[in-house]
Structure formats: structure tokens, C-alpha cells
Amino acid sequence: DAGITQSPRYKITETGRQVTLMCHQTWSHSYMFWYRQDLGHGLRLIYYSAAADITDKGEVPDGYVVSRSKTENFPLTLESATRSQTSVYFCASRDRSYGYTFGSGTRLTVV
Amino acid sequence: GESVGLHLPTLSVQEGDNSIINCAYSNSASDYFIWYKQESGKGPQFIIDIRSNMDKRQGQRVTVLLNKTVKHLSLQIAATQPGDSAVYFCAELSRGNAGNMLTFGGGTRLMVKP
């Protein structure tokens, strides 16, 4: 199916563990983004990518790593998860206009 | 589903009434704005956009108004329906060294009473 999909939908992990959130889009959009959504903060940009092999930091990049070896995939890795990274994570892609399309989100709980 | 936020500003309206959701943006140089709707357990969904050379744009049951003088954006929903219940975000496009990026407001929760 065409669209942008995130996996897993829900994840519980322990403090200190590495966890990777997946994002896949079928449109070949150049730009992809990772946001986190927390109470009182709205959507905050973690990392973005302008094309394959091109990534850059957003507003809150600390503790996260991204890669973009293929245009369609943009995984987000928490190298050593902390409780402050408990959040809902949204991936988005952008076409040549400025419209962003979001995935359904991953709810991550770090215990 | 995911809880978007328990402390969001909330607008409660009666079904069939019109709703007005407001947003103040920060960057006077922003030249493109979008309204998103986020239902419980889902990602934000595009509703309507407007460029800074316009002050009004209409869609189906929705109208966006832009007042650049006071950096204010509003979303009007006509004949509000229960399916309109969601959190609404405004976003502004800023052009900087990192390219064109959307910055999102904190959101407003719309509750429609049947």
C-alpha cells in the first residue's frame, strides 16, 4: 500500500537499551523527518533528511541517531534509551510542495 | 491511542455550531502556513494551507484567515461535526540555513458535543 508506515506501533524498552524505530515511505519523497510529541511541547523536530545519505539535526537531536541509506527508509535509533525519551514519535515525508505526510506514530515507553 | 496532551487549550462547541481555533506564530518572515488535524492514535493530517500573500483561503467547511500584522492565524470550521473532534495544530514554514522547515504550534483540542 502506498503511504508512510512506522513500526513498531508500541514499544516498551529498558533504560540503557538500544532501540530502533522504523519509517518507510513509498512515494520516493526526498525529505523525511522525525518528530517527537510530548505533553506541553507539541511536535519537536529530532532529525531530518533531505535525500539519501544526507541527514541533519533538528531541534532536539541529543541521544538519537539516524541513517538514510535508501530514499524510502529513515530509521531512528536511540543508542541508550533514557526515561526522558518516553514519547510518541512521528515520521513524516515531504513532496515537492511543502505538505508533510505523517505516519501513525510509535509510542515508546522507557522503563 | 496516544494521548496528544492533557494540558492543551480546549475548545468545546455544540454540534452544528461554527468553531474558531486560533494560533499565534512567531516568525514574521514565515510565508507559508498549514493547519493540521490530529485524531487520537493517529498522526497529524493536512487540512488546509495558506501563503503569506493571501489573507483568507477556503476549503470544504474550513476557512483559514491570516493576519500578518499581528502574526495571527485562525481556522474556522463551519457546522462542526462530532468527527471534527481532534487536536488542531498550526505550522509555519521558516526558511533558514537548514532549508525550509515547518515549526508547529502547541495545538488546541476541539471537543464537539452532540
Question: Can you offer a commentary on this structure?
Answer:
The complex is a heterodimer of chains A (111) and B (114). Chain A has 111 residues and is mainly β. Chain A contains no helices and 11 strands. Chain A has strands at 4-7, 10-13, 19-25, 31-38, 42-51, 54-57, 64-66, 76-78, 87-94, 100-102, 106-110. In chain A, the strands form 2 sheets. In chain A, strands 2, 4, 5, 6, 9, 10 and 11 form a 7-stranded mixed beta sheet that branches. In chain A, strands 1-3-8-7 form a 4-stranded antiparallel beta sheet, with no helix packed on it. Chain B has 114 residues and is mostly beta strands. Mean pLDDT of chain B is 88; it is low at 1-6. The A-B interface holds A 35, 37, 39-45, 48, 50, 56, 58, 88, 90, 92, 98-105, 107 and B 2-7, 32, 34, 41-46, 49, 89, 93, 98-102, 104-107.
List the helices and strands and how they pair.
The complex is a heterodimer of chains A (111) and B (114).
Chain A: E1 4-7, E2 10-13, E3 19-25, E4 31-38, E5 42-51, E6 54-57, E7 64-66, E8 76-78, E9 87-94, E10 100-102, E11 106-110
Parallel strand pairs in A: 2-11
Antiparallel strand pairs in A: 1-3, 3-8, 4-5, 4-9, 5-6, 7-8, 9-10, 9-11
Chain B: E1 10-14, E2 19-24, E3 32-38, E4 45-51, E5 56-58, E6 62-67, E7 72-77, E8 86-96, E9 99-104, E10 108-113
Parallel strand pairs in B: 1-10
Antiparallel strand pairs in B: 2-7, 3-4, 3-8, 5-6, 6-7, 8-9, 8-10
Distance between the termini of chain B: 22 Å
Query: What order do the SSEs of chain A take from the amino end to the carboxyl end, as H and E?
Result: EEEEEEEEEEE
Secondary-structure-based class of chain A equals: mainly beta
Order of helices and strands of chain B: EEEEEEEEEE
Structural domain tally of chain A: 1
Most extensive protein-chain contact, per-chain counts: A-B, 25 and 26 residues
- What's the number of extended β-strand segments of chain A? 11
| Overall helicity of chain A | under 10%
* Low-confidence blocks of residues of chain B: 1-6
